[in-house]
Design brief:
single chain; Type 1 dockerin domain; Rossmann fold; 3 domains; four-stranded parallel β-sheet; 16 helices; about 15% strand
């Protein structure tokens, strides 16, 4: 997978289309005006339909963070103009990325969110943040797009400057989004779903940095992410030349697994495994237990969280997680599978396989599990601890992955 990629800060005013807005963009716009450079899609800094000296003024204001308005292009290539600075935020997903860029101050700007995202789906995460910030329990709930409960009215009651959500949530809430935009509330889409995609992860992170006035922090996070994935892919390319690829089964609840075009299936393939579900499923769905026996996977990975397959997350004891993982393999015929006979059965927290910038943790665990002799020096647990120390407002604890 290519790791030497460029990415663009998608903000009007970034005339030279690099990863920041600075005086080079001012110079570029002037050269466009004088006919010395070709116009780019980001030259029209004030979004008035033409490139002029007014765009030079606007770009200078953006550089010193004094612009009253900012026009951005989000992850779905939607153009939105926002009143700056951002003080009131509604967010429905990727809260951790938002906090990693904006710190605790950004959390205090949240005036509404999808509470079920944490409290309902990631209970140990919710309890950890609630203990650190008890007041977040009072943040209004605006509903959960994937459950069909997201409400434009509840969002409008919060009077936000911006709403932040991910692409699939946008698809589930298009009518509500239209109502919000008619009410003058901009909706920004950030996208961390495509596995290990440096360009997409970086561009959404840069956008968060611009919205939250944390440009350097955003670049620091991007640099960290690139450092965690680039070496892995460089080494994996060499490993795959000499080592056979293992057959892998990734299981969610019960017999749910992930097919050829599902992002979790893609994670397996990009980490150097063969997804046995790719031949029978395109997206997610149940896999036939008999097919599993016939396919005979070399590696089995369970997705876990508190109350789901294997308890994992903040505050979870390793011994309990290992006991639960051992219980999961008590299925008819599994004693004859390569994965169980060779003790290559694992569990990983859902956090790492669900559209986040820390999907690098899954990548590192996967390559260790797929090619144990080639990646002995890689320590994903330490990399996850470092993410906490550098970017999250809560302390690391608990168990996030286990093996038999």
């Amino acid at each position: 997978m290519e790791t030497d990629v460029s990415y663009t800060l998608k903000v009007l005013g970034n005339a030279n289309m690099d990863d920041t807005i600075d005086m080079r963009d001012v110079t570029y716009i002037k050269l466009v005006i004088f006919g010395k450079k070709p116009e780019t899609e980001f030259c029209d800094a004030n979004n008035d339909g033409r490139v002029s000296m007014l765009d030079v003024v606007q770009t200078k204001l953006i550089i010193v963070e004094k612009a009253g308005k900012l026009t951005v292009i989000d992850a779905l290539n939607r153009t939105e103009t926002l009143e700056m600075p951002i003080e009131r935020v509604v967010i429905t997903f990727n809260v951790e990325e938002y906090l990693a860029v904006g710190r605790e101050e950004a959390l205090r700007k949240v005036v509404g969110w999808s509470k079920y995202y944490w409290e309902g789906r990631r209970p140990t995460v919710w309890e950890t943040y609630l203990e650190r910030f008890p007041w977040i329990d009072d943040i209004p709930d605006v509903g959960y797009p994937w459950k069909g409960t997201f409400s434009a009215e509840k969002v409008m009651d919060c009077e936000p400057d911006v709403v932040i959500m991910c692409p699939s949530q946008y698809e589930q809430a298009t009518e509500d989004v239209e109502r919000l935009e008619k009410a003058g509330i901009p909706v920004i889409i950030v996208d961390f779903y495509e596995p290990f995609n440096i360009k997409a992860h970086a561009e959404s992170t840069l956008l968060l940095g611009e919205l939250l006035g944390e440009r350097e922090r955003a670049r620091e996070l991007i640099s960290f992410y690139v450092s965690q994935v680039s070496e892995i892919f460089e080494r994996l390319e060499e490993v795959e030349k000499t080592c056979p690829k293992p057959k892998v089964l990734l299981l969610g609840k019960e017999w749910t697994t992930y097919g050829k075009y599902h992002y979790r299936g893609e994670m397996i393939e990009r980490a150097g495994g063969i997804n046995i579900a790719a031949d029978v499923l395109e997206q997610s769905g149940e896999i036939d237990p008999e097919y599993v026996l016939k396919a005979n996977p070399d590696v089995i990975i369970f997705i876990g969280k508190l109350g789901w397959n294997v308890d994992l997350g903040y505050g979870v004891e390793k011994e309990r997680a290992e006991e639960m993982l051992a219980e999961q393999i008590q299925r008819p015929g599994w004693e004859e599978l390569n994965a169980t006979k060779n003790n290559r059965v694992h569990a990983i927290h859902i956090y790492f396989v669900h559209g986040h910038i820390y999907d690098y943790v899954a990548l590192q665990y996967f390559v260790k599990w797929f090619y144990p002799d080639a990646f002995t020096d890689i320590n994903p647990e330490e990399a996850w601890k470092e993410f906490h120390e550098r970017f999250l407002p809560v302390e690391y604890s608990g168990t996030w992955a286990v093996s038999l």
